[in-house]
Design brief:
3-stranded mixed sheet, 3-stranded antiparallel sheet, binds protoporphyrin IX containing FE, transmembrane helix, Cyt_P450_CS
Length: 540
């Protein structure tokens, strides 16, 4: 294109030159002066126009570290990707690039860039870039999290939100949540005074809540020996493998050699998960007796799995759903929804144990709102303002998904004045944005009070671009309504029913992080509960 313009300009200039030469030869000084000025103006204008067009077409790539030939910056990344990215942002600015193998990665670190990507150019960035491990555990992108942007994803997500997460359905599942939370409180009461792993406890409760809402039973309710604990191990393994840097992802030509064995490991873990899901579906189908059938005709009484199975049976439906798609969706909820919520509860407890004043304030609020002779009910939640602030502050300081789920633009575009090429892997480092002193006072302190003022400012549904624990745009987390209920309800019940101490009094609690697709604690939080409420009946 530029060479074409150059050719045209050269032709034009040369014809004027001939004319000018003729004028010069005739010694026509006036003509000569006019022509010289005209040529100078023309040349300047042409130069400006051409360079403006060229600049418009090719904004440069963002700045970034050089790295080594072939491997790029891979050898220099530490084990905590979110920290390494934050350090690089300090050097190269809020948007930078780095090559990891032969994959171009672009990292964004500011609310205005987040807005450009998640609002202004949301459709372009609504695609995912699944690692090899995700292709396996999503049944080849048949789930919601990893499916490509398009009508398949849209239908699945709409269906999921309508049949699992509408206010109506969530209200109906209230009894399941209450049953499981009360069961947990009783279990803790029975082991009072003994050390407990809060992460394990929260995971077990969240998993049971999810499974009861999904198919009216727990994993233990299956006819064989699968336990919630072994499911937690499988789920942890899936998350670990999803977050593990894998050479196959950075050098797709090497993928078939599976050099680190990530694909092999994921296939093995996934086989067990898949078998559990098959058993769940089969057990649910067995329940399809005449009595169940009658109940299943009543929309009000159906659980999510029953609804899915009904849709599958109706061949005339507009969006026929296969058994594999059902399993893919169940997995999103069981692995994605449970681990994030349980990890957030564990962090909230850890932060409060390190800042006993916040624990005291939360318990005082519970005593005021709930009363020491009552148990926490979901109806209390809207009044628990401090508790809500604790949850928000935890999601700020310890966002469960620190780099969100990486995005992949479907066409080349410009962000922050730089080119982001089609197919690049785009990370939004919300962990770093949540700790940026430009937007937060004393960002590394755990201070729930910051969320007590002007609550409208602290929306976390993706509209406030400096606070994005659930992401933003079309692919924002659809589980927010369930996550917020479960987080506060379980945390409030644990704090109202018990006082909590570290095993060794006065010990400094380890608050270090272990990076993964979900940001976990490096060491499990082990604490000892003591009775807080006056009446033993409140623990039944
Ligand atoms: C503390 C709890 C949770 C956190 C912090 C969290 C966070 C996130 C984040 C950051 C994303 C990616 C958003 C983006 O790419 O912009 C996401 C996606 C998703 N989450 Fe959650 N989540 C939580 C709980 C849940 C729950 C309880 C469920 C299900 C019941 C759920 C289901 C999903 C699904 C299906 C997606 C994929 C959405 C899509 O790609 O269209 N999440 N979540």
């Amino acid at each position: 294109m530029v060479s074409h313009h150059l050719e045209r300009a050269t032709t034009t200039i040369s014809s004027y030159w001939t004319w000018w030469w003729e004028a010069t030869s005739k010694k026509d000084l006036v003509n000569q002066a006019v022509l010289t000025v005209l040529i100078a103006i023309f040349a300047t204008l042409w130069y400006l126009w051409a360079s403006l067009r060229a600049r418009k077409r090719t904004a440069p790539l963002p700045p970034g570290p050089r790295g080594l030939p072939i491997v790029g910056y891979l050898p220099f990344l530490g084990s905590k990707l979110h920290h390494s990215f934050a350090e690089l942002a300090n050097i190269y600015g809020p948007i930078f690039k780095l090559w990891l193998g032969n994959r171009l990665c672009i990292v964004l670190n500011s609310p205005s860039l987040a807005k450009e990507v998640a609002r202004d150019q949301d459709i372009i960035f609504a695609n995912r870039d699944p690692p090899v491990a995700a292709l396996i555990c999503s049944y080849g992108r048949l789930d919601i999290v990893w499916s490509p942007y398009g009508s398949y994803w849209r239908n699945l997500r709409k269906f999921f939100v309508r049949e699992m997460l509408s206010n109506n359905i969530l209200d109906r599942c209230h009894a399941h949540r209450r049953y499981e939370v009360r069961k947990t409180i009783t279990n803790v009461y029975n082991k009072i005074g003994t050390p407990m792993d809060i992460g394990k406890l929260s995971f077990q409760t969240e998993l049971n809540v999810m499974t009861r809402s999904l198919w009216g039973n727990t994993i233990e309710g299956l006819e064989d020996s699968v336990t919630g604990v072994s499911f937690r191990e499988l789920s942890n393994e899936v998350m670990r493998l999803l977050g593990k840097p894998n050479i196959s992802d950075f050098f797709p030509v090497l993928a078939r050699f599976d050099i680190q064995g990530v694909e092999r490991e994921m296939k093995k873990v996934f086989l067990s998960v898949d078998q559990i899901l098959d058993r769940i579906i089969e057990q649910r189908m067995k329940l399809d007796t005449a009595k169940e059938k009658r109940a299943s005709n009543n929309r009000e009484e159906k659980d999510f799995l029953q609804f899915l199975l009904d849709v599958k049976e109706q061949e005339t439906t507009e969006t026929p759903i296969t058994r594999t798609q059902i399993k893919a969706m169940l997995l999103d909820i069981l692995v994605g929804g449970t681990d994030t919520t349980a990890t957030t509860i564990e962090w909230a407890m850890a932060e409060m144990m390190s800042n006993p004043e916040t624990m005291r304030k939360a318990q005082e609020e519970l005593a005021d709102v709930v009363g020491m002779t009552n148990i926490v009910e979901e109806s209390h939640l809207p009044k628990l303002k401090y508790m809500d602030a604790v949850m928000k502050e935890t999601l700020r300081l310890r966002p469960a998904v620190p780099l969100l789920v990486p995005k992949c633009p479907s066409e080349s575009c410009t962000v922050g004045g730089y080119t982001v090429p089609k197919g690049a892997k785009v990370f939004l480092n919300v962990w770093a944005m949540h700790r940026d002193p430009k937007y937060w006072n004393n960002p590394s302190e755990f201070k729930p009070e910051r969320f007590l003022t002007d609550s409208s400012r602290w929306d976390y549904r993706g509209n406030n671009f400096q606070y994005l624990p659930f992401g933003s745009g079309r692919r924002v987390c659809p589980g927010i309504p369930l996550a917020e209920r479960m987080l506060i309800y379980l945390l409030a019940s644990l704090l109202h029913s018990f006082d909590w101490q570290l095993i060794t009094k006065g010990e400094d609690l380890d608050l270090s992080e272990q990076f993964g697709i979900v940001l976990k604690r490096r060491t499990p939080l082990i604490v000892v509960p003591t009775k807080r409420l006056p009446n033993s009946a409140l623990y039944a």
